[in-house]
Amino acid sequence: MSYQNADNVIQVFNTQVADLNADGLEDVVVSGWAQEATTWSGTVHGKVPLKILIQQTDGTLVDKTTSLLGSNNMIYGSQRIIIQDFDGDGKPDIFVGGFQDSPGVTNGHCCDATPSAIFWNEGTSFTRQDFTENVWAHSVCIGNLYGSSVPDIVVGYADQTNNRYNTIYKNNGNRTFTLVTSMPSVWLGGNACTILKDSTTGHIAIVNANVGYAQVAGYSSVVNVFDSSMNYLSTAGLPGSEYTGSTYSPIHDQVNMVATDINGDGLTDLIITDNATDKNNGYLVALINTGSFSFSNQSSTYFPSQSNNANYMYYTRYFTVNNVNTLFLCNADSSFNFTTLTDLYQKPSTYFQAFDQSTLSAAISGISSSAVFPTVYKASNGKLYVLAAVPSFSGSSASYTFYTNPL
Ligand SMILES: [Ca+2]
Ligand SMILES: [Ca+2]
Ligand SMILES: [Ca+2]
């Protein structure tokens, strides 16, 4: 299997795992950042393919994109893939938030807003629906904001310069959405977000990591709280994202957020991963919800063995493996070389412990390249498998080859 965009692509950043065809086996959806060719001087046109890889009974993946999507699988790029049942028919659908960021480009076409798309699962095929708005969905999160049974979608702002308003797609439940841009406190320039609900008060929190322009002075991440009717109540800085100085200079580049009840008290807590590619000092933050969306930084309690030297990339999966909570991370050095390739923490009792790294390394032995992008999925034999997207470069362009190996 291989992967390449219309021009050239250097990073496959997005994958998501779900059982798309209801056979009990986890499947993988692959997308990525679009990247304009460095010589391109027109408006945004670069696209990337969305790929659907269906797991076979032997644990391997087969590219079924053509039979499920036909040839209409090119999108303007995404940073986040969300797989959820958005129309309530019991079948998981695929949402890709519009995002284009070309870190290597010099012609001014970096970071353009692009439209999102949703692929409705019909069972043996998908129906594509394109959104009309251009958004910059570095972060995407979903939750029931307006009381319906199907999830609403919150994505990054559309206008980076003038109006840093949110873009909320209120889900009408019939494969239509109503655009809501009337809540300026929901700033989503950041890199990750999640939506929490307080079961006692019905209050809703939209937590945004790395918002980038000091919505709360001294913090790069924030929690915005609303009542059950989405009336704005308050905003507070998130512990673990503190920085000093009058200008925005985050020490930690928080890019992924896991919402889970770490301590089992019924309140949803947060695990935030840190992509400090320019500082080599990233780590995992464990925030315990002490009620009413106040959070206490208890990282040293729940991640006692971690080093302050990670570069966690834009892939984190939190799931159960043999009934043990497991956190799979993608770790690179400052040059995007995946020297350790992955980190995996498990929480067999009260706190997280690092998994045996040699086991992980063995799974990707023979795959030696920089910028290998790993994804983890479960096979029917109980094994974990790694999908590694391995680039090969030709001048400024790159294509990826996919490998699957059991852990
Ligand atoms: Ca499946
Ligand atoms: Ca559905
Ligand atoms: Ca808790």
Topology:
Blueprint (H helix, E strand, L loop, with lengths): L1 E2 L10 E5 L8 E5 L16 E2 L1 E5 L5 E3 L1 H5 L4 E2 L2 E7 L8 E6 L15 E8 L4 E10 L4 E4 L8 E4 L11 E5 L5 E4 L11 E6 L6 E6 L12 E5 L5 E6 L16 E7 L8 E6 L10 E7 L2 E4 L1 H4 L9 E10 L2 E8 L10 E6 L5 E2 L2 H7 L9 E6 L5 E11 L2 E10 L1
This protein binds calcium ion (3 copies).
Describe this structure in words.
This protein has helices at residues 65-69, 299-302, 357-363; strands at residues 2-3, 14-18, 27-31, 48-49, 51-55, 61-63, 74-75, 78-84, 93-98, 114-121, 126-135, 140-143, 152-155, 167-171, 177-180, 192-197, 204-209, 222-226, 232-237, 254-260, 269-274, 285-291, 294-297, 312-321, 324-331, 342-347, 353-354, 373-378, 384-394, 397-406. A hairpin with an 8-residue loop joins strand 2 (14-18) and strand 3 (27-31). By secondary structure, it is mainly beta. The two termini are 20 Å apart. 4% of the residues lie in helices and 42% in strands. The longest helix is centred in the last third of the chain and has 7 residues, at 357-363. Strands 1-30-29-28 form a 4-stranded antiparallel beta sheet, with no helix packed on it. The mean pLDDT is 83. The protein has 3 helices and 30 strands. It binds calcium ion (3 copies). One calcium ion binds at residues 261-263, 265, 267, 269, 288-289. Residues 261-263, 265, 267, 269, 288-289 line the site of one calcium ion.
